[in-house]
Amino acid sequence: xxxxxxxxxxxxxxxxxxxxxxxxxxxxxxxxxxxxxxxxxxxxxxxxxxxxxxxxxxxxxxxxxxxxxxxxxxxxxxxxxxxxxxxxxxxxxxxxxxxxxxxxxxxxxxxxxxxxxxxxxxxxxxxxxxxxxxxxxxxxxxxxxxxxxxxxxxxxxxxxxxxxxxxxxxxxxxxxxxxxxxxxxxxxxxxxxxxxxxx
Amino acid sequence: xxxxxxxxxxxxxxxxxxxxxxxxxxxxxxxxxxxxxxxxxxxxxxxxxxxxxxxxxxxxxxxxxxxxxxxxxxxxxxxxxxxxxxxxxxxxxxxxxxxxxxxxxxxxxxxxxxxxxxxxxxxxxxxxxxxxxxxxxxxxxxxxxxxxxxxxxxxxxxxxxxxxxxxxxxxxxxxxxxxxxxxxxxxxxxxxxxxxxxxxxxxxxxxxxxxxxxxxxxxxxxxxxxxxxxxxxxxxxxxxxxxxxxxxxxxxxxxxxxxxxxxxxxxxxxxxxxxxxxxxxxxxxxxxxxxxxxxxxxxxxxxxxxxxxxxxxxxxxxxxxxxxxxxxxxxxxxxxxxxxxxxxxxxxxxxxxxxxxxxxxxxxxxxxxxxxxxxxxxxxxxxxxxxxxxxxxxxxxxxxxxxxxxxxxxxxxxxxxxxxxxxxxxxxxxxxxxxxxxxxxxxxxxxxxxxxxxxxxxxxxxxxxxxxxxxxxxxxxxxxx
Lengths: 199, 481
Prior knowledge:
The complex is a heterodimer. By secondary structure, chain A is an alpha/beta fold. The termini of chain A are far apart. Chain A contains eight helices and seven strands, in the order E-H-H-E-H-E-H-E-H-E-E-E-H-H-H. Chain A is globular, with a radius of gyration of 19 Å. Chain B is an alpha/beta fold. Chain B has helices at residues 10-16, 48-57, 87-103, 118-124, 156-165, 190-201, 216-219, 223-231, 247-253, 263-272, 323-336, 362-372, 390-398, 401-408, 457-466; strands spanning 19-21, 33-36, 39-42, 67-70, 106-108, 133-136, 150-153, 167-170, 174-181, 209-214, 240-242, 285-290, 297-299, 307-309, 351-354, 382-385, 411-412, 433-436, 451-454. In chain B, helix 12 crosses helix 14 (401-408) and helix 12 (362-372) packs parallel to helix 15. The radius of gyration of chain B is 22 Å and the shape is globular. In chain B, 61% of the residues are buried. Chains A and B meet through helix 4, helix 7 and helix 8 of A and helix 2, helix 3, helix 5, helix 10 and helix 11 of B.
């Protein structure tokens, strides 16, 4: 995973709550078996509407999405994060993220920064008054800057550390392979097994 | 999470029993715990990139004996003996088959009698048991919480992580009690309970929580009804939802292919009986629902929290104090093609879908069949019935339910996720309106431009009779009765 410390890019105000992962990437795009190449799938239904924010200059080149509350609800599809990343987004700002989406973001190096809704509203206004305004997301100091707005954001310490270091989760866990083996040795024998299959 | 050993909630007990390694640090700086996973369910949509990751890193699947796969999201529900027509769907299924063969994962393919929706298959085989940790790359994994298991939906990176390590790094959850006391009226079911819960706490209300469904109304429910409730925990934003195991749970499990037997059964039951929230344990939050006054519930909007009693009307934007909710209501009414204040029962539908991991089990089919038996379908409505698994289909046919549905004018299909998310050919057309027993009414969920009203199986059945959203009590007595 790429390291993330600080990113500055065009902010995209998405004034909508409950942006579920079916909207971020419709199910029809989930049939692919690759991990990349999903940029065309991002917000596919909405992008057919010429008035959709990503169809307007200068937002089309955005890399910081500023969304309403409850972003990423619904399906667990990590494809939602891949699509955002493939399009070019480096960070999503919202006052509330769905848990699975937040977790998936952390695995893929997309910063899911949780801000107060009042700060989101200020940034929306700034971005609408100054289309193309830049937003800086600083993971080191956990702050977002946009024009004269400086807002703190929340992200859990562990995810922040992994993103700053660009660490691979599986590698980290396998450092504890002995502890996993010890746990397995103590599991009750009646716990179910899928193999051998029983009729 | 409460620290003391003496008083814990059910979710905390299950968690504590699976800690491989406790996270270091305290408070916000605390690292996640490394949690052991007892059962990993796999399907074709969220696994290809995970297997690819293993292959690239040269890693094996750590515990093949705790892993099982099935095909469900892409599978057609007609002509299953023919090659899958859509090349991308076919490719995804073929990729799962190749991956399972290469790594040695047990797979139930289309045409196999154990194939079906992953959340129907696990419990049916007796693989889902109390006190387990269960994961799957699918948000409706919460279904398995009905057994008192801690069951969570995960993303593809986590699927790969579990395949490689049989563990997940997880932050502890907060706990929320959902107390449902009283007795459900006839025609009111588990689906109505959970739709009412989500309408009450909202799609983000459960965020960060594991929900425990409690109270006399929950205790009175069958396992299949409990699965319906736990299934939709994710629609309230919760990471999981569960119900303490009891005699109903044990009775469901005993004799299933992978349930313990003999002395193992006794040892398991003795442990399972310890799996309940201690009397003096404290939840981080509590919510109450009155089962006595609950009515059939239906959604009017484009998220599962936008629901009302079937006997009421479509709300208006001005009913919402919160600016975001008001805007969401406006947008939803436009998408759904609905006028505010329209009585819900005046809404005419084009399609009725009975199926999905929420409501496709034997009881769901029986309850709907009971309503449609001896009645005629509204000629302007199409109804498709999709059993949750090949086994459910066989059992239903053995009871003659297929005949009841086809006599009524409904289509009787093969098992899979089908029209819940339309990854196979079962989709709504632009503007088509559907009463659906599934779990999500998102924009375009059942097909681009499709309009979804989430309902229970009996409301779906009654709606197919009248052509408008209806409860069984709206129906005249059938001619043949």
